[in-house]
Amino acid sequence: MNNITPTPELVLEKIGLDSATIKSIKPSWKRTQYRAVVNWLTEYKPHANASNLEIVKGYLEAFYHLCQAEDWQRATTIIDIPLNTPTNEKLRDILGTWGYYQQQKEIFDRLFDKLNSEWECICSNGLGRYYYSTGRYESAINYFHQSLVIAQENLPTEKQVNILINLSSPYQEIGNYQKAIDILSEALKIDKTINNSLEEGSIFINLGSAYDCIGNYSKAIDFQTKGLDIARENANYYQECIALGGMGNSYFSLQDYHVAMSYYEQQLKIAEEIGDRQSIKAALGNIGIIYRFLKTYPEAITYLDQSLELAIEIGDLNGEGTALTNLGLIEVELGNLTQAKEHFEKALNIAREISDRRGEAITLFGLSQYYYRCGKFQQCITASQKYLKIMAECGVTINALPLPRWLKSFLKFSQRGRFQLTLFLLFVLIGFPIAIVVFFITTLFWGLYNKQKSIKN
């Protein structure tokens, strides 16, 4: 992949730097910075097996020296150069695709408040993406809002669509699914006036993800399919990766594990081809989760360990917490309770640190399984109730809970009337031990409460 960067000559021509120009630059300290720019572009040679970050190091160093010279225009020209990759992204964007979030953040930090309103908007949006990708959702929301205000006041309407799409994502991660859907609906309304198919595809993919989280799987698959079709029509491999992952999530929720696996494997293949480490991490983790549900534990642990390692490497706290929770569930199922508790405690701390409410809920669900296996029934019930409370506050339906299909069917059956409710309670009381009985009944009445709430609204 050493040929992904444009030639140094082309870059120097693009930024308008040559020996004659540098000689005339004053004062001398600035001249030194410009010489360093030329040296990094022309002299630096990455080794044969260099990482993507090492390959673009010369261009990043040139950017930093231009910032030292306070030549903001040339600095932005360097990071705006598209690279010769399957995604053809600009240098400032592809760093995020590769998972080099800290280096991407440094670019936006250096340019913040140094140029016009358009670049202020780009930097705020970029910093929002950094905080979202690393799991700092409240900070991400603040930066996306800041970027949106600038766009609404100073820039053409179409600039708002991408920001709105980005803004919906952290709201979804903190469990405010209706807010995410409302934001995406607003983006779709604006997009219809400018007819940008790529942005429309991204809106559909994000809507699909939001509807998947609240258990509306038919709607989720419909939106994801539309987004996937648009991505393929435009040969947008990055967007295709996200859509394939979304399709896999919906079929996983429907417990159609073989179909879900095929989507995750497609996602992993494309993600590896384009170097999208976030999608690689997600696909590895989701494949591991499927193996967990199929009780193929060695494969599950292998994939989840790889996902955990990559999440830590790129600084993705959400991904780290998700992998730890699923590894904890495997340890519970294998009877390794001490290790399970360690995984759950780490995951719970991460979820609360980054305000990932759904992640917190899923970890509490895992802890309830741990407490049950330890015979600590009171703690099991408490963790289960906290889990259900958070899921209810997020607007999640029974359909979206990680429960067996037969139990979901029974819970829905119990909501049809008093006779059905009585049959369900008799079945539970006769067939299960007390801790699970309490959990089932709590789940049932939580579901009835949610149903009544939605009728009132």
Topology:
Elements (H helix, E strand, L loop, with lengths): L7 H8 L3 H5 L4 H16 L8 H4 L1 H12 L3 H8 L11 H7 L3 H11 L5 H17 L3 H18 L4 H15 L3 H18 L2 H17 L3 H17 L3 H17 L3 H18 L2 H17 L3 H18 L2 H18 L2 H17 L3 H18 L2 H17 L11 H10 L3 H14 L2 H23 L1
Structural summary, described in words:
Among the domains are: 1-114, no CATH class; 407-457. The chain is built from 25 helices and no strands. It has helices at residues 8-15, 19-23, 28-43, 52-55, 57-68, 72-79, 91-97, 101-111, 117-133, 137-154, 159-173, 177-194, 197-213, 217-233, 237-253, 257-274, 277-293, 297-314, 317-334, 337-353, 357-374, 377-393, 405-414, 418-431, 434-456.
Largest sheet: none
- Structure class: mainly alpha
**Low-confidence segments, ≥5 residues, pLDDT <50?**
444-457
Shape label = globular
